[in-house]
Amino acid sequence: MPEGTISGEGEGLVAGEVISALFPEHVTGEHEQQVLRPAVVVGIPGSLGEPRFEVLAVVPMTTDRGNAWSRRSPALYPRLARGTVRLRSPSICLLDQVRAIGAERVRGYRGTLTADQYHPIHAGLRRMMSHAEIDAG
Q1: Which of 23, 62, 99, 136 has the fewest CB atoms within 10 Å of its CB?
Q2: Residue 76 structural domain
Q3: What letter does residue 26 receive in the DSSP assignment?
């Protein structure tokens, strides 16, 4: 797993750990995750240099309700089973909602994903954010 740490509220967190985070409320059109919810830490900006602010890159999670949209795109919505890192229900990692949150929004530590559990999340983000060559022809 990629390593890195952050000081302050999220001190010692590394990619692949699951936290409870307080997401800011804003105008969402009811599509972005808000309020207190689990999230997977996927990046520590401090591992690349000294950031202006103490933030974590996270992927919010939501309950897996077996929706068609998540079943059609399993690479975009990796699943975690109930009981994984103390999840009360089967859950989906929302890679399309990756975001930075301030370390002060961390409200609790839920646990660490195994390498096998974290791999689909990491691989999906790498693929989603990779540079694709553009055919000039």
Answers
A1: 136
A2: 8-129
A3: -
